[in-house]
Write a structure and sequence with these properties.
Distance between the termini of chain A: 66 Å
Radius of gyration of chain A: 23 Å
CATH superfamily of chain C: MetI-like
Largest interface: C-D, 89 and 89 residues
Strand content of chain A: 15-25%
Helix content of chain C: over 70%
Structural class of chain C: mainly alpha
Largest sheet of chain A: 12 strands, mixed
Shape of chain C: globular
Chains: A alpha/beta (356), B alpha+beta (362), C mainly alpha (297), D mainly alpha (263)
Order of helices and strands of chain A: HEHEHEHEHEEEEHHEHEHEEHHEHHHEH
CATH architecture of chain C: Orthogonal Bundle
Strand content of chain C: under 5%
Oligomer: heterotetramer
Helix content of chain A: 40-55%
Number of domains of chain C: 1
Number of domains of chain A: 2
Distance between the termini of chain C: 58 Å
CATH superfamily of the largest domain in chain A: Periplasmic binding protein-like II
Number of helices of chain A: 15
Radius of gyration of chain C: 26 Å
CATH architecture of the largest domain in chain A: 3-Layer(aba) Sandwich
Number of helices of chain C: 12
CATH class of chain C: Mainly Alpha
Chain lengths: 356, 362, 297, 263
Amino acid sequence: MRRNFLRHLAISLSVVAGLMAANTQAFAAEIRVLNWQGYGTDEAWALEMFKKKTGISVVHDYFNSEQEMLTKLRTNPGAYDVVLINSAFTGQAAKEGLIQVIDTSGMKNVGDLSPNMRNDASLVQGGKTYGVAWVWGVTSFAVDTGDFKTIPDSIEVLWDPANAGRVGWRDDAVEAVQFAAIATGQNINNPADFASIRAKLRALKPQIRTFWSSEDEWNQFMSANEFDLATYWSGSAARSKTAFNLPVEFVIPKEGAIGWLDGLSIATGAPDTESARAFIDFMIDPAFYVKWDTDVGAPASANAAANAQLPATAFNRTAFKDPARVAKIQFMGPMDDGLREKILELWQETKTYLLD
Amino acid sequence: MAQVSVRGISKYFGTLKALDNVSCEFEDGKFYALLGPSGSGKTTLLRMIAGFEFANAGTIFIDGEAVDTLPVEKRDIGMVFQNYALFPNMNVFDNVGFGLSVRGTDKGEITRRVGAVLELVKLTGLDKRRPHQLSGGQRQRVAVARALVTNPRVLLLDEPLSALDRTLRVEMEVELRRIQRDVGITTIFVTHDQEEALTMSDHIGILDKGHMVQEGPPLDVYENPNSVFSARFLGESNLLRGTVRNGDLVLGDGTVVTCRASANGGTGGSGEGPGVCSVRPEKITLSSDPDNHTDTDATPRNHLRGTVIRHIFAGSSLTYQIQWNGDVLRVFMQNLSGDILPAGTPVSLSWKPGDTVMVPDA
Amino acid sequence: MAVAHPQATDTAASVTGRSRRTAILALTGPAYLWLALTIFLPLSAMLYYSFLSDVPIGDRTAVLTLENYAAFFEKEFYQTLMWRSFRLGFEVTFYCLVFGFPCAYVLAKTIRGRSREALFLLIILPFWSNALVRIFSWTMVLRGNGVLEHSLNWLIPEFGSLNLMFTYPAIILGLVHSYIPYMILTCYISIEAIDNGVIEAARSLGARRLSVLRRIIIPLAMPGIIAGSILIFVPVVGSFMEPRILGGRQGTFIGTIIEDQFTAVFNWPLGAALSFIMLALVLVVLAIMAPAIKRVT
Amino acid sequence: MQHGSNRLVRLGHVYLGIMLAFLYVPIFVMAAMSFNESNLYRLPITWSTRWYEALLHNDKLIDASINSLWVAVVTTVLATALGTASSLAFFRYEFRGKKLLQLLAFPPITIPWLIIGTAMLTFFFWIGMGRGLHAMVLGHVALAMPYVIIVVSARLKSFDLTLEEAARSLGASSWQVTMRITLPWIAPGVMAAALFAFAVSFDQFVISYFLSAPGVSTLPVEIYTSIRKGFTPEINAISTIVIGISMVLLLGVSRFYRFGGQR
């Protein structure tokens, strides 16, 4: 009786041990990438192309918000090689020692990066490069061309009573406050007049049909005609048009829009920095970017050469051709925790006000 | 088999004293009945001998070995529970063989011994049946077989017959006694049914509120109760109160009753003062002629006049309730003549002097 | 027969006491050691965090403070959302009871044998599908030209739009759907134990169907009702997934606020503080209900 | 025993049918949408098995499902063993601190999983345990145990203690009593508890999400992380397969064990 119990115990323990061994064993030449899911670096064809070229295979881990990305970096030193960080957070990650300096000498495509993005103040600190500019885009809104015969050009269309109850809005504190900052002509990274932002956000009560949080939700709600216009990202708008062929038009209003720049960094303690640099270089290679944009739809590339190779009608070339509009775009800069928490509290209070 | 000795056992459940300094001896091979009302501590004592309860004071010996620190499974006892506690997920063969298999006995030995004990209890051929497919009597005998098969030193029975119907119980009383005698195992048997105790046991112990009231062979305890409680609890008895005058008891209405002393502690003639005597209902002769006291050789003593209240007819026997100066006496008669005295008939009661026992009014 | 005089060093009680203690330790020890490592220690660390100004990871400075708890009392919207979450908890529990209890009764008392077995399992089965997938399926049912609207229009020609999506009722519907099996199961277990003889006795004494229900069946089923209510009320108060996906603009609750502290900002202390306040209030509610429960069982 | 007039009983059965339909609406929709060609779940459904083909070579999702299965099986074995042991102790013995231990089994149910997930993540990081399937098993067992204790204790309530006494009087050690008398009797309860534990682990996304290591994830984690980009019908496909298998498994198993109560 006692004998076969011990046998059972031994078996189950070996199973657990087996599980533990499996995940710590290192394969030859493999790098770990931490990124949003389905955001370019995990495109199957791209990874095959990269493996054929360099023999390095790529494993992905994902996050659902910038804070989760930072948490995963803090609690897993040495678990990741490449990590995608929005430039607004690169400074904080570097200060906390989560990412390391990148030696860009060996990377051939770095030269083609447009200068203002390559040396962006958040990516290069004290002359040392912490992040390689990858793609950039704009957060603004898109309209259903079925409902808007003429494409609006002012941000006020979101507050227009004619669209009451037909507006989609992303449930994100920083984004909401920055929209209100633009609408009230303030600097999005350091808004001074919080009172007017609070009033502007509360004015959205009759307008908002619902919040959305994922691209897929946006596409579903738009196709189900739950809303006529909604805040959106330029990259996603491109995908909605090409991949989902939804009748939508991305708008950069005259008051300006929120620009964002995503950079690729190398995590501190990355097991294989050599392969990491090769992967980053591949990610900004026009060969990858052009296929990504045409097949799937991507945000604009920080590599001017790659952008140039896009077909003339490509969204990323037409959307940003008007220099006056491009100049009005305010890029998201670093934000200290205190301000971020204050903004979150304001947005949460507003959401409570938005309840019926 | 084994001699069981209980020395000065006491047991408290919080403030309640379940057993108070109880001592008794269970001779080897004897059938011992522990009798008493519910809450008297009889089951507690049995469970202590088995090892399910532990004494606060005193010691229990089996075959001279103190077993107080021994857990149940090491005491080598056999126990039959009131609800039989047969294992529902096993058939009769596995139930009976359980005790042997946990001791690591090999298969052939188990089959042989289980076969033998099933024959002893007349259950051969039922070994594939499940407990819920057996009758009450069969279940009870499986429980006994299961307890006996491991040849325990002592057999403990916790009111094993209480769940059976009347006729089956009488049959099982005889059956159990036969099995016990064949095996010759020391058996301690707890019951609240005094008839069962009388018919089955070699030795009786009456317990009340945690005290051992009286101990002894059934006939002796029945005929010589050592207290009012014992007289009234074991069998039925009519208690007559009066004052003792030089060996006789004079009742309230002046009737004089000659008594004999109870062999178990009653001091018959010596002292004066109030006394109680007990007369068994079956010892009394009843007749409708009020002063007919010649047919028995009773002197005018031991003779009462009363009137019939009612009768209780039980087929082979008849019990009369008689009104006698504010008291109710009971007379038990075989159902011989068949004509029943109606209520209200004046009658006379008389009995032989030897049939009245002086009982200490403990 | 020589009677050995007992050494009586070990009284019976102490020896068996020791073996009893080892048995208890052997049985509960591993389980509660496991819980200590995975639940109690981590949560006490989180409780400690809730009294800090920042998360002590990396080079961050953290100082003891009560500001996180104070924030709840200073900011009025936290209280509004806390009350709104508790109301949601009560409403969902109430609907689960009202719709789940009859289900349990029918299953326990009017269906026999194998089919009862199969139905019992059919109720457990939805637990196996992923909760997220179930919630998203509800969006497909409820939203504009979703399944419900489509079929209604098919039935009643120009039924028009339902717009049940992104409303408070949609949240209730999603939560009741996720949690009603708990109520059905716990009530089933206690109703099934009610001896039919008791019900027959009550009816033989002239009790009509309603008073049998009110005076006999519900009191006897109370343990199941209470267990079910607790298993529903407690998690629903802290729910954040169903409200956010089904609720749209109406989907803001204390659960979503707490989630924000972990996903939108790195403010674990405030998130932990709000959760422990919520937990405390839940325990207060259970304490208030306790005498009422004790009186009935 | 038919309780109440037949009309009422039929009404009851209809009501039960409606409730079951309500419970299964999303599952039918999920399954239907997994055969719908449109990736935006547009109606009417145009039949296609496109998502099942896509699923075949989406080995990330399949690996995740296999991991989920592994973790759920190990969790079920451990949680059921530990939970049953504790329930036995609570059933057999009265001891100081018993009430406290029973209360301490509840936090995993009462505290929001978000808090527990984060707390586990930081604590495991502190003691150098790290993340991965082993950490997930640790977390899932803790979450499943309270359900095991509740279900097994309920079953033990109707277990007759004298059966244990009888077995011990026949010389069985407490271990033999447990393995040959008590466990066989409460087996249906233990089985139901195991099914609960499996459900808790297999459907757990918050804790798994926090404790998953790079490249090693489970089905719920895949579904949770895909929220950002959105739900592809592949998720519906794998979920439909999972539900299908569990339905066959459960209805098959019910042939042997009666979960619903006495014999």
